[in-house]
Write a structure and sequence with these properties.
- Belongs to the ABC transporter superfamily.
- Keywords: ATP-binding, Cell membrane, Membrane, Nucleotide-binding, Transport.
- One of its GO terms (cellular component) is ATP-binding cassette (ABC) transporter complex, substrate-binding subunit-containing.
- There is one protein chain.
- The protein has about 375 residues and is of the alpha+beta class.
- The chain has eight helices and 23 strands.
- The chain folds into two domains: about 5-240, P-loop containing nucleotide triphosphate hydrolases (Rossmann fold, 3-Layer(aba) Sandwich), CATH 3.40.50; about 245-360, Nucleic acid-binding proteins (OB fold (Dihydrolipoamide Acetyltransferase, E2P), Beta Barrel), CATH 2.40.50.
- Helices cover about 25% and strands about 35% of the residues.
Length: about 375
């Protein structure tokens, strides 16, 4: 297990990068704790796999260093870093049995016959392949082969880190949930440092202790699922986390009030007047439908019943605002306004969250 430090790290695939757009990874300075489970979350092309490959040693960074437990491993080969990596598509030895595939990393390191047998049996049980241990990998389905890849990555107990690059892409949805649960159980049992790359927010939020959200080659926020939901530090985090994502509205903000399209919106904190492109952000869960004169005037365009709740799509001067209501909630025919929970409204300037001067205490 290892603490992983990214020190002044950046990477470009071009020989002479000249502009910020030339860098696949902008400068990163982070310390990832020993024994923590992290998810790298972001859209395709944001730099997740580049960063993972730098950590594993498959790619040398253009600048900066990688440290494992304060030891510089930037120039070390992958094998010397003592990590296990599972890729997006299955990598197995087709001519070997499932048992031999799982045992291969342990045999390479001279483990005892009994330890190998016990460990292979335990991992086969974890990935649901005990019945196939004697079968050759060649005749198995793609998702079965990927389970072997996962198992081979997890079979060693002595690794510095376990790295997963979108490992559940070819796994059927039901098995995805089971394998994520098993990975979480493995982490709790052995305390490996785990880094899991995904573009799927559900995978990230259910797997990780901390989620590292990447956008355009940068880490825009690292935090717990609750922190990402309640206080997105960047508008991309608000948009990317949640379904639907955060509502963003251009606003003028000063003190405890925002003005949106000429309408005053109360805030749950006091702000200095922000500069730049100012917006307020509020998640659909904290939008209230209202009848009367208060709030923003809207037109309800449609209501989508998604089973566990309803999504109400509203129009405010050409801008869509989404609200979430309970499954059994009715929508009064006179609803023409919406309001926001002031404590749940965030303020942004040029896409970055603005820290308030002070919170407003609301009497119980």
């Amino acid at each position: 297990m290892a603490k992983i430090t990214l020190d002044n790290l950046a990477h470009s695939y071009l020989p002479d990068p000249a502009t910020p757009e030339d860098w696949a990874l902008k400068e990163l300075n982070h310390v990832w704790g020993d024994g923590e489970a992290y998810a790298l979350l972001g859209a395709s092309g944001c730099g997740k796999s580049t960063l993972l490959n730098i950590i594993s040693g498959l790619l040398r960074p253009s600048q900066g260093r990688i440290l494992f437990n304060d030891a510089d491993v930037t120039d070390q080969a992958t094998a010397a870093r003592n990590i296990a990596q599972v890729f997006q598509f299955p990598v197995v030895y087709d001519t070997m049995t499932v048992r031999d595939n799982l045992a291969f990393p342990l045999r390479n390191r001279g483990a005892s016959v009994q330890y190998i047998a016990d460990r292979v049996q335990a991992i086969a049980r974890m990935i649901g392949m005990e019945a196939e241990l004697g079968r050759k990998a060649r005749g198995l389905t793609a998702d079965a082969k990927q389970k072997i890849s996962l198992g081979r990555g997890m079979v060693r107990e002595d690794v510095n880190a376990l790295l997963f690059d979108e490992p559940l892409t070819v796994i059927d949805p039901h098995m995805k949930w089971e394998l994520r649960t098993q990975l979480k159980a493995l982490h709790h049992e052995f305390g490996h440092t785990m880094i899991y790359v995904t573009h799927d927010q559900t995978e990230a939020l259910t797997f990780a202790d901390k989620v590292v959200v990447m956008h355009d080659g940068r880490v825009v926020q690292m935090g717990t699922p609750q922190e990402l939901f309640e206080r997105p530090e960047h508008t991309f985090v608000g948009y990317f986390i949640g379904s639907p994502g955060m509502n963003l509205l251009d606003a003028e903000v000063e003190g405890t009030t925002a003005r949106v399209g000429g309408v005053e919106v109360p805030l749950g904190a006091e702000y200095a007047r922000p500069s730049g492109h100012v917006q307020i952000g509020v998640r659909p869960e904290f939008v209230r439908l209202a009848v009367g004169d208060g709030g923003l005037p809207v037109t309800i365009r449609r209501v989508e019943d998604v089973g566990r709740h309803k999504i109400i799509r509203c129009d405010f001067n050409g801008v869509e605002i989404n609200a979430i209501a309970a499954e059994g909630a009715g929508i009064a025919p006179g609803v023409t306004r919406i309001g926001f929970d002031p404590a749940a409204v965030n303020v942004y300037s040029d896409d970055w969250r603005v820290a308030p001067r002070s919170r407003i205490e609301v009497a119980a």
